[in-house]
Design a protein that fits this description.
Layout lengths: L3 E4 L8 H19 L4 H14 L4 H8 L6 H13 L8 H11 L4 E6 L3 H11 L7 E4 L12 H11 L6 E5 L7 H5 L3 E5 L20 E3 L4 H6 L2
Parallel strand pairs: 1-2, 1-4, 2-3, 4-5, 5-6
Helix pairs in contact: 1-2, 1-4, 2-3
Length: about 230
Amino acid sequence: MIKGIIFDLDDTLISEKEYIKSGFKVVCNVISEQHNLNFDKVYQKIFELFDEDSDYVFNRLLDCFNIEYEKEYILELLKIYRGHSPDISLYSDAEEILNYLAGKNYKLGIITDGYKITQNKKLESLDIDNCFDCIIITDELGKDYWKPHKKPYGLCRENLGVDYSFLIYVGDNIKKDFITANKLGMHTVQIVREDGVYKDLDSIEESYKADHVISDLNELKDIYNL
């Protein structure tokens, strides 16, 4: 019998690409104002560069517009990106399943990786704290405790007061979301989003795979008779 569900955040409850778009918009606005450039051209260019390669995208963007810069300027842009208040929303099926579960007696949690300032800003924008009994931002424990470390899973289980065997863990990243949850005896579900950053990842070993693969969070209702 299922007593609790723990969700990943990025590309599970929200679109990571939607967050990236929001952050790029803020950064491009800063660059265009500081260097007297057309915002639309800068914003279009950053996505062209990002689609080619996500590494050093701010450096490459500045190079494209012949802007001289020091390392400190890149760090400033990164700080703006990570610390901005994002224009994001829940996936429609995430909103539906959370509204559905709100009428039940299930314990709900979130375990999310990512810089703590960034993840906190996302949660503030979403205003969903009251939907969950426990929210673990792994970076607040320390970088060594990001998934797949077992500590965040253990803390969440302890806060929810539910044994692992009665918990579902739902995430998207097959490289890190499920291997620990599987070892701990949790039920595991991979959600594959069309716009997901990790949707095309392949698992190396069976132990990394989830028990079920879905494309809509509402499928949880039928799989586990929620």
